[in-house]
Amino acid sequence: MKNKIFPYYQAVPEIFIYQAVSKFVLGVLLGLLHAMAMWALKSTGRVAISSGDYKFIFGTWQGAVLIMLGICTVFVYVALDLNMKIILSSKLLNKEQIFIRQILKESFFSLKKMLSINGIGVVLYVTLLAPILGVGVSVSLTKGLYIPTFISSVINATPLYNILYSVFALVFTFIGLANIFVLHSVALDHLSVKEAQAQSKGLMKKHWKNYLKENFLYSLTIMLGIGIIVAFVLVVLFAMKQVMILNASIGRFTTLLACIVLSIAISFLGLMITPFYLMKMTQLYYSYKEQKKEFYEVRKRRKHPFIKAAVLVVLVISILSAALVTRYFDEVFSDKGNVEIIAHRGGGIEGAENTVAGLLRAYELGAKGSEIDIQRTLDGAYVVNHDTNFQRTANVNKTPGEMTLEEVKELSVDGEPVATLEEMLSASKDRLILFVELKGSSADRQMAEDAIMLIKEYGMESQAVLISLKYDLIDYIETTYPEMLTGYLTFVSFGDTAGLNCDYLGLEEESATSDAIDAIHQQGKKAIVWTANERGSQKHFLLSQADYLITDNVEQAMEVMQEIKERDDFTKIIDTVLSE
Q1: For range 266-282, the mean pLDDT
Q2: CA 477 from chain center: how many Å?
Q3: What gap in Å lies between CA 268 and CA 256, rounded to an integer?
Q4: 548-560 tens-digit pLDDT
Q5: Which uninterrupted H or E stretch holds 166?
Q6: C or N: which end of the chain has fewer Cβ atoms within 10 Å?
Q7: Would you report the helix, strand and coil content of the chain in percent, each value rounded to 5?
């Protein structure tokens, strides 16, 4: 066991140096690509593009430039995040001398092989599908990629979509496994992508059982290691909590210091996981090709004095940081308490979806607002419904646009009538802020004009926010009716998103970073996070600087908010560390 684990430990200095150099080079190249992309974007007068700007992206030369720069960015990530690690792994296995400059050269040279239809397909799989399916390795750029909640909720709620997605995932999982060694073949054997795919499929066809076994054992080892680390962390934190009970000031300092050091250590381990995995994959690759490269022989230990110096510097900075934060503890860890709860689709799971009863239930539980979805009927009325049709909620396979208001009113959602926009405005007036999403194919300027007229009739200009996934529509409302409150919902964007023409910006959970929220506030706008339903996610964003949190689980969110208000000093520190 020692001979199988120790080589990974020996490789840490080289991997650490590689990570530092590759991140620096990556930062420089990405900076240049970003500057070029911003130039193309600003030449149109736009400050940002987002998921709703597909006409601009695919219909202008600037959009074409941005697509090309995006592809270049992805290829750069493949070179520095994957190819370079594979080549480094190979040299470690062969006990060759490591020259970072040479590895950089080889990794970029291997990209020439990827400039083909097959190569682009491999790159797209690595960057888009691998992180979602969890098969193979992915670049750090998209490692957190996921299917947005508003899409996954529809997939999960629709049996046909669920089946189709499952089939899609299964097919591409097999494709991913069959092509698992393509990058190795390209980077190490200099094969074309087509040749590499054929070789990878041949290796996996012959050795798939061993591959699955080795991956299982590797994953088990990693989980065991993580378990030991977690147990150690828990012991340390328990000790720190006891110290805090005895002496608040000393307890604060020691807990902060322990958390800072542990956070740095965990971040360092995070940097090692992918390189270690690629070392294992490279070992299997050589083994399957019957070019067995064992690195079980213990190599002579190399001295890396600068690493010891770096550790010392980090420790000193950690001590000083812990002392400084202890000095201003109350200011740093003051409860923010500014995040308001917004019920999703009327009342979320607390009542019938998008109904007056659901909205009022959310109000009873303490929600600050309610989000609803409106669509236009055949006779020009506006009813509240999220999906394209009423199949899921009312068991009627018709869209609002195919029915008159009278016909819609005959439907029921969990025993409650389908609501109109007027009924929702009346129910929320002087109770809740109503976030009205202009939804579906009927979300156009006519819908905007009609919704504005109704909001003004009810005197709710300051109590209603018109929101949409269509930026052009929001831009029109904000420009034509500046007295109305508007919000743009985005889950993918590039550029100065905070500078878009609206009053509120809605961010999906993954894109709702502290930097993104700060940028929104600097523009004098409000930040909405949607749609956080898990307790941990709710706690994370309730502790953030966001203004509103949209959720289906209002009661749980209110409970989490109360728990936050009742935290002790130790919990405040732990929550802050976990939220970073």
Answers
A1: 87
A2: 29
A3: 18
A4: 999 999 999 999 9
A5: helix 159-178
A6: N
A7: 65, 10, 25
Q: CB within 8 A of 477, min separation 6: which ones?
A: 448, 452, 466, 484, 486
Kindly tell me the sign of the dihedral angle through the C-alpha atoms of 31, 36, 42, 44: negative
Token code pair at residue 562: 């109360």
b/e per residue 258-274 (b: at least 16 CB within 10 A): bbbbbeeeeeeeebbeb
Question: Shortest CA distance to 390 belongs to which of 382, 400, 380?
Answer: 400
Taking the C-alpha atoms of residue 563 and residue 539, their distance in angstroms, rounded to an integer, is 9
Tokens of 254: 């020691």
Q: How far is CA 85 from CA 79, 144, 319, in A?
A: 9, 20, 33
- CB-based contact 467:506 (threshold 8 Å): yes
Asked if 383 and 408 count as a contact pair (C-beta separation under 8 A), the reply is: yes
Given a cut of 50, is residue 544 above it in pLDDT?
yes
Cross-strand bridge partners of residue 417? 412
161-187 residue pLDDT tens: 889 999 999 999 999 999 999 999 999
398-416 burial: b if 16+ Cβ within 10 Å, else e: bbbeebebeebbebebeeb
DSSP state letters, 437-503:
EE-STT-SHHHHHHHHHHHHHTT-TTTEEEEES-HHHHHHHHHH-TTSEEEEEESSEEE-GGGSSSS
Q: Show the tokens assigned to 101.
A: 């400059």
Q: What is the pLDDT of residue 5?
A: 67
State which amino acid sits at residue 268: F
Which tokens belong to 348? 């979320």
CA-CA distances (angstroms) from residue 426 to 356, 433, 535? Answer: 9, 12, 32
